[in-house]
Structures are given as C-alpha cells and as structure tokens.
Amino acid sequence: MTKDEVLTIVLKSASLPTLPTVACKLISISSQEGIGMKEIASLVSKDAALSAKVLKIANSAFYNFPIKISTIHQAASRIGLNAIRSLVLSISFFSMKAKNNKDGFNYEKFWEQSLSGAVAAKLIMAEIDKSNLDEIFVVGLLQNIGELILALSFSDQYEQVLLETSKGEKDVVVLEDQIVGADHTFIGYEVAKYWGFPTQLLTPIQYHHCPEDYKGNDNKLKRTINVVYLSGIITNILYSNKPQKYHQIFLNESKSMLGFDDKIIGKILDLVVSEIAHTADLFGFYIKNQKPVEEILQEANEALLNINLTYDHVNRELIDATVQLQQLTKELEENNKRLEKLTLLDSLTEVYNHGCFQSILENQVSIAARKNLILSLLMVDVDYFKSFNDNYGHQAGDFILKELCKLMKKSLRDYDMLFRYGGEEFAIILPEITGQEAQIVAEKLRESIAMHTFIINNKKYNVTVSIGLAEIEPAVCAFTKNDLINFADKALFESKDKGRNKVTLYGKKNI
Q1: Which residue among 21, 126, 178, 194 has its CA within the 20 to 30 Å range from the CA of 339?
Q2: Boundary (domain end) residue, out of 45, 62, 95
Q3: Are residues 151 and 182 in the same domain?
Q4: In the structure, what pLDDT confidence band is assigned to residue 134 with cuts at 50, 70 and 90?
C-alpha cells in the first residue's frame, strides 16, 4: 500500500482514538483571532473533572506559583494561553482510550514511554529556553502518537513490526514502511493535522525521528525538533535493551545539536527519572519504580563484564580461537572501557572498586570450582597509614595510594586483577596460581614497595605494606567467596601481629 492509502484506512478506522471534546474545541478556538483568557477559561471550566486536574497541576511544583490558584480563570491568567492549552491537551491525551484495543499493543506502556519523552523534552528545553516548556512537553508527549494509531489500525502488521524491532537489526520507521506501508511520523503528523493541531506542534511530530530531514528556515522550530529527537533517545536509554548504545548517542548528539557540555548532560540524566515519577503522579498516571540512568548503565555494564570474563577464560583454553570470538571479545572490551570509569573504577586510584571486586571474585571462585583450577587472593594493607595521614596530610596520603597502585600493577601479570578493597587496603586476585607461587609474588610486591621512595613536592617518603594471602583448591575442599576473603584477612592480621611489613600464607592445616 502507498502512504496515502494507509492514511485513508487510518482516518476511517473504528480503532482511531477520539480526541476529547474540550481539547477539540480548545484547539479550534485558540487559533482564532480575538480569543482571550476569558473564552479559554470558560471552555475549560465546563468540564468539572478536567478543571480539577488543571487546578491540581497549576498549584503543584510543575509551575511552582507562590500563591494558591482557586479558579480556572486565575490559572489561565497566570499560566498564559499557550500554557493552558498545552496543559489541557496533556491531560486530555492521558484520558484518551483506544477503541477496540487489541492485545498485541501495550497501551499503558506506550503512555508511560510517552510521558517519559515529554518530561525529558521539558528538561532539555529548560537548559535552553524556559519560556517554551509547556509546549515542548506536549510535543514530547505526542511525538510517537503515530505508533499507537498504526498499531490499532493495523494490529496484525504492527505486531510483526514490534517483533522485528525487538531484534534490533532495522530502524522502526524502516520496518513500518516495509510492513505497513507508512511510518509513524507520517501518520502521527497527518492525524494530528486532521485533529487541527497548530504548526508548532505538528512539525516536530513529523521530523522528530530524523531531524536532519527538516529543511525549513524557522530556527525556533528546528530547535524544538532537535529537543524532541533527543528526548526520544533518553526514552530509549530508559526502556530499550541497549541503554549503553543510546547513552552514547545522547552524549554525542546533545553536544553537536545543542552545544551541551558534560555537566548539563549529567544534570538532565540525573533528574529525568525522579521528574517522570513526580509528573506521572500529577497527571494521575501510575508508573512502576524506574531505575536511575546510572543504575541502568551499571547493570548493563555488569552483564557485559560477566560475558567478557567468560570469553576471557575460553580464549585461554582455546589457543586457536575463531575470528568471530576474537571480534566479540574486542567489542565487549571496548564497551567495558567506555563505562568502567563510571561504574567499576575507584575514583582516586583508578583501580577496580570494592563492588567490582565482590562480583569478579564470586565469578572466579565459580570458575575455579567448575574447572578444578587453583585460585589465590592477596589482601594488602598499608602499614600505619592513619599516622601517615595525620603527620603529612590527606593529600600526601592520596598520592601514596595512587603511586602504590601503579607500583603494584608493574609486578602483576596481565590477567591478575587489582582492587581497592577500602581505605588503604587492596585486594589482588591471582587466577591459576598456588599459594606458594602467590607468596613469591607477594614477597616481590612487599619488597618493591619497601624499597621505593615516594617523592611529593621534592619531599621523600617511605611506606611498607602487610600482606595476607590464601588459596583455594577445589579438588581438596569446597570454598565460597567469603571463605577465601576471610582466610586472606586472617593471614593479613597475622602479618600485622608479627610486626608488619610481612607476608603470611594462610596455613592449610587451619583450613
């Protein structure tokens, strides 16, 4: 079918959502010359339920007025014509119900994501022009209205679109064109025009998916299109199964399109989830607890890390690894590098942090048990570090910790793993190495640190470390992650009791 044929079917479809009466009239009269606050307020006041919702939101932090607004006339006067129109449209669209709703399309999920897009658009626009927030909220809310309309008018075909989209191989607008005959940006634009939407709301719906296709000279409209496009990317961070991909797209596009820096981008992403929850409550819309963007990215990265570790061991066993596996490992390593500074590294020393240590050690213990491999663990503690900080200051102490990590890395194998356990204590995982072999490594570490001179602002300092180590031998006895940490800790305490600057191997006879 052609686009025009698809549109004809849509406009005649019994499944086409109906625009609420007040919203229809409001769109109609607000475009007429001479229409003022009084006419708008009188129209909205005729719907008691709508009026109550307008007043609730007008008196909320959504607008943050210092005094209470008690009538629609006051609301219209304080908020303004465009803002009251945008607010009524937003409330009206949340109350819309699809006719003959099919099981294949998740209506509630669609509006949840639409609300997220609206909030994201408002947060982005707030960093550019705070005078346009109400209108951008509506455009963000309705940018994907064409998806809902296509799903309800062509339920079988759109179910296939959703299935193919989930595979992630083709863009949704390409699939819509191929399977249905028209994409949601075209249908959304044409139906909104049929409903009587003004140009400033119509055009962003038409171009929100491909802002580069807009060739007009209206810079304000172009900016609105870009903002809505970026809000859709944030929605994909929150709801897609590839949040890292869309996070990187948002970083790049928001910088190139709007000139945002990392501080502004971080602010938007930090606020978006809490603002979605707050706005949903104002509009009487329930949304399940949404995880913050940082947590979404962290969980995705941890999943990639586990996959990466698995393939790392496969490569060790299979010397002649296939090209496909090597490529996958490379891609996973690149993805991990992009996110590890945010989620995995200790900010001071830039070695892996405590949370990462717990996750990786558990994985390594599991691998050792499954493959009957030996695994050793070192716990390293800087001697008298509190006194060092008290005598020379925390800046000197921080420098010592950073230099100490660089020094330790030089003595370790490429696949040994160094972590900051907490404070001045570090942990080192040594895969496939016995306790006696690990003791040799630990002695070299201890000796290299004791002999090293740390120079800070032309002043020389020396420190020593105490080391405790333990091993697990699955063929002899079963161990848990916590057992191994406990054994290494006991050995560390023994090194301290012996006078510090010592290495102690946890005795097998005590295991």
Answers
A1: 126
A2: 95
A3: yes
A4: confident
Give the mean pLDDT of 449-458.
92
32 and 76 share one domain: yes
CA 189 – CA 199 distance, rounded (Å):
10
Task: Tell me the two tokens of residue 498.
Answer: 């012996």
- Of 230, 334, 223, which is closest to residue 272 (Cα–Cα)? 230
Q: b or e along 430-464 (b: 16 or more beta carbons within 10 Å of the residue's beta carbon)?
A: bbbbebeebbebbeebbeebeeeebebeeeebebb
Residues 177 and 317 in one domain: no
% of the chain beyond a pLDDT of 70: 84
Residue 186: give the domain boundaries.
3-16+100-290
* 374 & 501 share domain: yes
pLDDT by residue (tens digit) across 308-326? 666 655 566 666 556 665 6
- State the Cα–Cα distance between residues 20 and 97, nearest whole angstrom: 10
Could you tell me the pTM of the whole model? 0.56
pLDDT at 510: 40
Which pLDDT tens digit goes with each residue over 15-39? 777 666 666 666 766 556 556 667 7
| Token output for 272 | 């978006």
CA 64 – CA 41 distance, rounded (Å): 20
Q: Phi then psi for 461, rounded to 5 degrees?
A: -135, 155
Task: Say if residue 462's pLDDT is above 90.
Answer: yes
pLDDT at 268 over 90: yes
- What's the one-letter identity of residue 323? V
Q: What is the pLDDT of residue 317?
A: 61
Tell me, yes or no, whether 254 and 121 share the same domain. Answer: yes
CB 418, CB 351: distance < 8 Å? yes
Name the least confident of 312-316, 325-329, 425-429.
312-316
Cα separation, 367 vs 459, in Å, equals 46
CATH of the domain at 368: 3.30.70.270
DSSP bridge pairs for 456 = 459
- What are 54's two structure tokens? 């307008």
Last residue of a domain, one of 336, 355, 372: 336
What is the Cβ-side half-sphere exposure of residue 177, based on CA atoms within 13 angstroms? 7
Q: Are residues 132 and 155 in the same domain?
A: yes
Q: What gap in Å lies between CA 462 and CA 459, rounded to an integer?
A: 10
Mean pLDDT, the chain, integer: 84
Residue with tokens 């009791």: 497
Q: Do 332 and 349 sit in the same domain of this protein? A: no
Contact 465, 449 (CB under 8 A): yes
Number of domains in the chain: 4
Q: Report the Cα–Cα distance between both ends of the chain, in Å, rounded.
A: 74
Beta strand residue intervals within 278-384, DSSP E: 375-382
By C-alpha distance, which of 409, 386, 411, 406 is closest to 396? Answer: 386
429 strand-pairing partners: 377, 417
Q: Return the closest-CA partner of residue 222 out of 198, 236, 206.
A: 206
Do 142 and 54 share a structural domain? no
CATH of the domain at 205: 1.10.3210.10
